[in-house]
Fold this protein.
Amino acid sequence: MQPRVVIIGAGFGGLYAARALAHAPVDVVVVDRTNHFVFQPLLYQVATAVLAPSDIAVPIRWRLCGQRNTSVVLAAATEIDVERRVVTLDREPRTLSYDYLIVATGSHHSYFGHAEWAREAPGLKGIDDALEIRRRFLLAFERAEWAPTAAERDRQLTIVVVGGGPTGVELAGMIQPASRHTFQHEFRNIDTRSARVVLVEAGPRLLPALPEPLSEQAKRDLEALGVEVRLDTKVTGVDESGVQLGDERVDAATVFWAAGNAASPLGSLLGVPLERGGRIRVAPDLSVPGHPEVFVVGDLALIEQDGRAVPAVAPAAMQQGRAAARNVVHAVLRQEREPFRYVDKGDLATIGRHRAVASFFQGKIQLRGRIAWWFWLLLHIAYLAGFRNRISVMIQWAYAYFTYQRGARLLEGGRGSGIGADPCR
Amino acid sequence: MQPRVVIIGAGFGGLYAARALAHAPVDVVVVDRTNHFVFQPLLYQVATAVLAPSDIAVPIRWRLCGQRNTSVVLAAATEIDVERRVVTLDREPRTLSYDYLIVATGSHHSYFGHAEWAREAPGLKGIDDALEIRRRFLLAFERAEWAPTAAERDRQLTIVVVGGGPTGVELAGMIQPASRHTFQHEFRNIDTRSARVVLVEAGPRLLPALPEPLSEQAKRDLEALGVEVRLDTKVTGVDESGVQLGDERVDAATVFWAAGNAASPLGSLLGVPLERGGRIRVAPDLSVPGHPEVFVVGDLALIEQDGRAVPAVAPAAMQQGRAAARNVVHAVLRQEREPFRYVDKGDLATIGRHRAVASFFQGKIQLRGRIAWWFWLLLHIAYLAGFRNRISVMIQWAYAYFTYQRGARLLEGGRGSGIGADPCR
């Protein structure tokens, strides 16, 4: 009977940990609330109807199918007993005992103590979120077309995006072109080009993870697309009719939230003190202090390196997942554990077509414009899981690129179609 | 001010009517509850995770984008005042007055007076239905994998399909291979090949619209796939744990309904007597007796030809939609109206791979096996709307054909991926 490793969460952290254990002398059980792994960096393209959900997600079972030592459970963890080493689930098999536990349940957006804003201003973390944002985005134009008053029409044509990080920037940069091109010829009572997209950031600049010049470039790029960028601006209220920015009122039917980072509530089940944002401070080997058999990886883990917290981004989660898996094997084989070391591969964000910013080696290499855009494109295709997803995404992008159309414009998740000289195609 | 034609429903009947009015001297308003047109003949492939919803649906707005005389309303009709010629909607613009009305709201499955069965045994008419059936289909295997008892495991691995028409036959024929091939290597605690699929038909044969020999061929083909076919068998009960077939009990976690035909309730708003199944008997020009300005087309319309009712199938709806549009133009131009004449293009159904049955010219030409299968394939590609849908469907089918995988296996509507020699791919 081999030791059992239970992994909770099959995002970048959990899935890469599981794959790294494929040939290890352990039994692996992967637990996730959904049956699929999502390539989160492209979620905003599902939310803006460019890609179909299926283009950026694959079944966890299929991804781990070749690993005979690994099984998958579709369930949510409700309790963790770190003393008895048992995880409780909301479905069969109800309980899972473990010898080693890897918690990789990630994070969601933070409403800074205003949980009630979530209903009016959904965040973007999973496929369901993306479909909800897409639904509101598409519905706004349908409602504007038949709005009873000019004021209501303008409110429907106003979209506010909160948060100037990569998600907010890329979301705003994808919404605006839809009104300028995609929808232009399909409505009879409104000029979709009059739609207003406002990007609100509380801090002094966009994309704080990138060097300052690139933040300014991103701002210029967004403004060139017609996006209103508001820096140093805090959201003080969100309700069904719009948002409050200090004394300024913006009437908007649609508000999307891409700000803050709140670690998964599962962290509180481990019975260790939580740091800011609900993250769990881990030892250099990524284990929880006092519980060398419990590891935490990804957005939920807090670990400092060179005096700065390792960022809550996909590459860090992947690296931590693999490192935790290696340390599990070391522990099983009675070897010394390795300290985790984050290799910063750089940051990049894309803004509409032919525009992107990228920074590598702590800003030693900075790219912008077309070259950064093509680089972004190739990198994301390369990291996508699965031959068919790559083909499919490339087809969607080629279609969107040449036709200015959007591939997935159905309120229930369908895909618009057709190609040619006709402006409607 | 041109006369206004209001079309309720953008299925095969309504959409083809709208397109036929593109250059007519009228204003057209198309009303639908969804924002997309669905290619219903392939819905069962979305329900069985072969295709993504987006592959078989296109936005109505996009489809009618080139028609400057046509606008689209996303809403449901709640009332029709045939005297004042006004349609009431559940959303803005709330009311639409018309000079001519085309009602094309189709039909749903009939539970023969047991509406309460719908919750346990969903039907298959729209994208949402297909996603619900796919969800239950995928969930059954997830639950079986961790079922606490053998009895529960077997119940989860039993799927009952009610109705031996094309939908039921094609659904059953697509479900069985998934358990034999697609899922085979991904589960650790169950042998998915032991899954049981039961197709129940109240009548003496499958596919009653086709010649008898083809019905028998279809039965043999299904049985060769491992489907249990029960003819002359009535469903007498459906509950959360299974179905009752007379004195026989079948414990099944999953039941799909593809029997009967109940016309859309909207027919009752027209204030004319309803025929069996809630259909409306129309005049030869497809108008409602006493209301020459109101037309009914598609599944909702009842019209006899050569002593037999025109069947409630997509080709009939398309032909009626075009005919009603022509008669609207005749009426506007004070010309004589044409009587509708249904051209039966034949029937066909596919059963798994390399197996299908087809009948043309009232059975004068009958095809079966590979040739019928390839014919079915080409015909459906040809009728799909939109260049991109065709490309996408062909890619999905090639993938499924060569890998025995399914393209859309996500509980939230994603797409599995990967290709190669690995049995998991």
User: Anything to note?
Assistant: The first helix of chain B runs from residue 12 to 20. Residues 413-425 of chain B have pLDDT under 50 and may be disordered.
